[in-house]
Amino acid sequence: MIPAPYLLYLGHSTDFVGIKTSRGLAEFRRGDCVGEFRHDDSTLTLGLPRMTIEEGAAAGAKTLVLGIANSGGVMGGDLVRDAVAALNAGMNIAAGLHQRLRDVPELAALAREKNLQLFDVRDPPADMKVGNGYARAGRRILTVGTDCSVGKMYTTIALADALKARGEKADFRATGQTGILIAGSGVPIDAVVADFISGGIEALAPERTDGGWDVIEGQGSLFHPSFAGVSTGLLHGAQPEALVLCHDPSRSHMRGLPGRALPGLKECLEANLQTARLTSPNVRAVGVCLNTSRMAKDEAEALCRQVEAELGLPCTDPIAFGVEAIIDELLCSEPSRPATTAAR
């Protein structure tokens, strides 16, 4: 376990989506966060006390969490210098970037000298096996998306919490660095060698016979050229009974790919259901979750009703409005709404 409490790193970030790991910890493990560290040119805040590295250490922070994400997951010079300062102040370092902390000689040497730890959250387990796609017992729900970073993790946690509130057994299964930091365990599926992606998910959510749910965090999108391979492996390994589609209606293009439009909701849902049927022939869609954080409440509600009418599925913003309607759809023995082609 990564020692808490944490000082959350924002650095020079100006992109709210780019600080999703720090943001996720501030949202779901706020009691473990003493403050945030950001440079003067960062326009963002998590609503935590702003602290220098030294102030964070004095406030009791045991670990600086480099909770930022960038294309390729690499560390720039400023980030390394800030990590050095944290080690010198007596803090461990945790990061979910593809570039490993241990592979930065200066950080590795200083951590050894200070008897501190470097936590590379994106390290997959060493004993991954190739997936087989054979049917296995258990009830599983997977979140999928029209794009990356559209709210799949938030939705997955909301679904798991809502199931437990109904008296169901449910476990959040994390597949990304933010979810793993929140849950304390998981498989960083985008760091797994391609041949082992589906097997990694089979191991993350193995056979279970207690009637409980594995609520699996999705990654990427079948329609994102950079990440569709990970999304495909997830669909096959999860063998989901049900899918929930996540979407950010404020997006004008695929994240990181200006000029490439997002798919339509029905188109995206159809593609995910078809892909999932390879290992889960009876998979069904049970809802749509929108990230309406940039919309007025009445506008968001109207959009949810519009999507419901178009797809014949419950639609909500899991943070603003909850996921009760989706849980109703999930737990009912027969769909309560007329099924569209996408919902069959």
UniProtKB/TrEMBL annotation:
**Protein name (Swiss-Prot/TrEMBL):** Putative NAD-dependent epimerase/dehydratase family protein
Q: Where is the D-glutamate N-acetyltransferase-like C-terminal domain?
A: 130-326
Question: What residues does the D-glutamate N-acetyltransferase-like N-terminal domain cover?
Answer: 46-124
What SUPFAM superfamilies is this protein classified in? P-loop containing nucleoside triphosphate hydrolases (SSF52540)
Native organism is: Sphingomonas kyeonggiensis
| NCBIfam families linked to this entry | DgcN
InterPro entries given in the database record: DgcN-like, DgcN-like_C, DgcN-like_N, P-loop_NTPase
According to the lineage, what is the superkingdom?
Bacteria
